[in-house]
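Below is how a single chain appears once it has passed through the pipeline. First comes the sequence as given, then the structure the pipeline wrote out for it. We keep one example in the README because the format questions we get most often are answered faster by looking than by reading.
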Amino acid sequence: MKISTRTRYGLRAMLEIARGESAILQKDIAENQGISNKYLDQIVHSLKTAGLISNARGKKSGYVLTRDPGKITLYDIHRAFDPEVCLVECLSENIKCELSDTCQAQPVWSGLNKIVIDYMRSVTLESVLKGKESLRNK
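Resulting structure:
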């Protein structure tokens, strides 16, 4: 499994928003993270559609989190861009593997997939903001 660029940039954008004491402008996120404004438009759109961020009201509008950073997980951010986590294609809901009924390896991949999902669910924006030490203890 390869984590998509959209998920990686989505996390970076969410961290920028979470760090701010008030709404943060898209141009500031783009500049601080070295992401093109055009690509960031797509990232922001997906994060808004997923209900993770919203526009702040007011004269100098920007983006804010819709929930506390401790309640937004890496899995939530990933799901804003990709519907599932699949280490191998045969685990995808969209694929019917002909060997799934007899495959002895599938439980191995399924178990590993579950570990990845559980880890992604355990990592919150808050834990990422606190730094590497809090993530090492997971």
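The longest strand covers residues 53-55.

See the next section for the split statistics.
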